[in-house]
Design goal:
- With 121 residues, the chain is an alpha+beta fold.
- Helices cover 45% and strands 18% of the residues.
- It is built from 4 helices and 3 strands.
- It has a 3-stranded mixed sheet, covered by helices on one side.
- Strand 1 and strand 2 form a beta hairpin.
- The termini are far apart.
Length: 121
């Protein structure tokens, strides 16, 4: 496993990413971030950490994929509230900046599955 620059992802990056993923999941389920949308239907599918652990890219997907673009937009606008809630859950020397992105892996997998079904007909 490696990042865009071809450098291998360290165990520390994976460990911190997983810890943040679980914490964000708990924050969203309990609606602790106080963002102006209902967060208990948001799934955090993956968190990728930068080499220096100062940036966390969180891939999220709302329940059923509905209003995904709007949900991401709100999370980006209120990421400071999410970060504040995260600071109460985990202790790190530098709490990472959180960037939110839509997880498109399910859509991609569905496209591949449909292509396979078409070729098998």
């Amino acid at each position: 496993m490696s990042n865009k620059l071809g450098k291998p992802v360290s165990q520390r990056q994976l460990r911190v990413g997983e810890m943040i993923k679980q914490s964000l999941g708990m924050i969203f389920v309990k609606n602790e971030a106080k963002v102006p949308i209902e967060t208990n239907g948001i799934t955090v599918t993956e968190v990728k950490m930068s080499q220096d652990l100062k940036i966390a890219k969180a891939f999220v997907l709302p329940l059923g994929g509905k209003n995904a673009e709007e949900t991401i937009k709100v999370l980006r606008s209120f990421s400071f509230l999410v970060r504040k809630a995260l600071s109460k859950k985990i202790t790190m020397k530098f709490l990472p900046k959180i960037l939110f992105a839509k997880d498109e892996s399910f859509e991609y997998a569905e496209k591949i599955e449909n292509l396979i079904k078409q070729t098998n007909k």
